[in-house]
Amino acid sequence: MGGPNEVRAKFPSMEEGTQEDWQIIGGHFGPFASKVADRVLDHLKLLDGDFGGFPIDRMQHSLQTATRAHRDGRDEEYVVMALLHDVGDTLGTYNHPDIAAAILKPFVSAKNHWITEKHGIFQGYYFFHYLGQDRDMREQFRGHEHFEDCAEFCAKYDQTAFDANYDTAPLEFFEPMVRRVMARPVNSIYVTE
């Protein structure tokens, strides 16, 4: 974060930008982008103490989901996806899976992105019928190549991760994983090989 004396582009509109302007902006992009994991972890911490009526808070749920995936031998990218699957709860109350999926998209496979994006509907299998909704809403995706992967994520890790007595790993255990995964974007318009 620069101050008032930092070198900045001079254009009043992008169509008036010059090569020099964009070199200045590009020079700021790298250092800013390198701290995305810090910002995501800070946002994840906002879930701490937010119970929303659940048996454990949303932070513990996220940690427990990731712990279960890790202990089941899932790879690092999957574990990070499991950790961050609900990171959008605070900003996207009505569409939290979309928020988490957007954050993860540059860093995960198409399969892990799809799981994140659709997990809210698949998780509904376990409770929508108690709220007057269709618990089989996920059936609209039956036949999709990642349907079973998302159903498994919810069955094994997400819907089971509300146990106040579970030996959950702390956030510090996962931080290095988050940093490694978010240090290498694989799907972004801003990264070229």
Span of the ends, CA to CA: 27 Å
Number of domains: 1
- In percent, how much strand structure appears in the residues? under 5%
Largest sheet: none
The CATH class: Mainly Alpha
Number of helical elements: 8
In which range does the helix fraction lie? 40-55%
In brief:
The protein has helices at about 20-35, 35-45, 60-70, 75-85, 95-105, 110-125, 145-160, 170-180. The chain is an all-alpha fold and about 190 residues long.
Can you characterise this structure?
The radius of gyration is 19 Å and the shape is elongated. It has 193 residues and is mostly helical. The longest helix is centred in the first third of the chain and has 15 residues. The mean pLDDT is 95. It has a single domain, classed as Hypothetical protein af1432, CATH 1.10.3210. It has 8 helices and no strands.
List the helices and strands and how they pair.
Elements: H1 19-33, H2 36-44, H3 58-71, H4 76-84, H5 96-104, H6 110-123, H7 147-158, H8 171-181
Helix pairs in contact: 3-4, 4-8, 5-6, 6-7
